[in-house]
TrEMBL record:
SUPFAM superfamilies in alphabetical order: EF-hand
Gene Ontology MF term list: calcium ion binding
Listed name of the protein: EF-hand domain-containing protein
A Pfam entry, by short name: EF-hand_6
Keyword Ribosomal protein appears in the UniProt entry: no
Coiled coil ranges: none
Record PROSITE patterns: EF_HAND_1 (PS00018), EF_HAND_2 (PS50222)
Source species, domain of life: Eukaryota
Length: 138
């Protein structure tokens, strides 16, 4: 009876380890699918934006130049506003702006998908895709 109980417990332990491994693989797959969907959505959005810009440029080149001038003026104003700040305030503002670029869902946090997007383009460090989860959790 003891031997049969021991074998049963050992088989149960092996099955649990196997199941945990499979659950881990499913989680990794789910994250990879979410990342792929996010990348695809971004590519589609970029293509639409590019197409719209081309249409605006063709339809009304004067309006496009006006918009570009507005953007340049806003950038100049932002630079002017920063000149009155001390170094720490300016650095905080720049860091907040950089953070906002990568916080795609405006949650106030960089989640695992956004972290993957941040690193995948080599914007900070080139990390293999299979190591991103470990780096994120560390």
């Amino acid at each position: 009876v003891a031997e049969r109980t021991f074998r049963h417990l050992k088989n149960k332990e092996v099955a649990q380890r196997n199941l945990r491994g499979r659950i881990g693989l499913v989680k990794v797959h789910v994250i990879a699918v979410k990342q792929a969907k996010l990348e695809l959505r971004q590519m589609v959005d970029e293509a639409r934006l590019h197409e719209q810009l081309n249409n605006v440029a063709k339809a009304d080149p004067k309006r496009l130049k006006e918009l570009e001038a507005e953007i340049r003026a806003a950038d100049k104003q932002k630079d002017k506003d920063c000149k009155g700040m001390d170094k720490d305030e300016r650095l905080r503002l720049e860091m907040r702006q950089a953070f906002d670029i990568f916080d795609m869902d405006a949650s106030g946090e960089i989640d695992q998908l956004e972290f993957g997007q941040l690193l995948r383009g080599g914007a900070l460090i080139a990390i293999p895709r299979d190591q991103m989860d470990d780096v994120y959790h560390q």
